[in-house]
Amino acid sequence: MTDEPTAVTPQEVTAPRCYRHTDRETYIRCQRCGRPICPDCMRQASVGFQCPECVREGAKTVRQPRTAFGGRPVGDALVTQVLIGINAVVFVLLLITGGSGSDLLPRLWLSPESLCQSDGIGGCGALLPGVADGAFWQLVTSYFTHVQVWHIGFNMLALYVLGPQLEGLLGRVRFLALYLLAGLCGSLAVYWLSPVNQPTVGASGAIFGLMGALLVVAVKLRANVQALLGLLAVNALITVIGAGYISWQGHLGGFLGGVLLGLVLFYAPQRHRTLWQALGLGTVAVLIVLGVVLRTLALT
Description:
Elements: E1 43-44, E2 49-50, H1 52-61, H2 78-96, H3 105-108, E3 115-118, E4 124-128, H4 138-141, H5 149-170, H6 172-193, H7 204-220, H8 226-241, H9 248-266, H10 273-299
Antiparallel strand pairs: 1-2, 3-4
């Protein structure tokens, strides 16, 4: 007896199901691995569609775009905005806790040595911390601290103008390193050159650092530097005129630090650029730490 072929009805055929959503039937397959994918899992590829895993694996092998100086391109000035936000938050906190009389202010300003807080009757009520006595955080917190409206206004306006230009050239990580290290260079100059009983606040050191770095890259790119030199000249004049209440030490230290950091970031050899930049920034950081240690030993 010969077996006759049996016809298979359409209902008996099992349709492929999405490998991620097994309850969904689909006749589309990933062009890379061949697995069935539903519309929710389809990712547009150069040819056809791919599954999410293949898209992720493919992205790992694609060379990520870089700016001319090694950073990843950014579509916004996020770091600049965050820095402005931090300065604004600190200003508001000081404002609602007493402004120049806030108990928080002595914790944030940069004072080379401890200061004696008056007890109101001509005596010393308490000692306010200084860097030489262990308040090393003041080297950073001081350039996020402002008391007067005009002070934070001018500094944040400058950061708003200068920050996005450098952030676009360097990318977020390098720009943040530039800002923080330039601010520390300004703080180091204040620590060494200011009177030991004179507290200092303000982001001016970091802002002058941005100006110094921008001057370096402008020269590197052979751009017109007249406007930038004019801005520097005006700020230098203001610093000299207001030397009695403006920290020329922080301005000078920040500017020189910005120039040095700009040379590291913008003149690093193209071959192994990231490594050279990291070594350069690390060296500057070590020199700052060494300067702080030596000054602390001298004061104590």
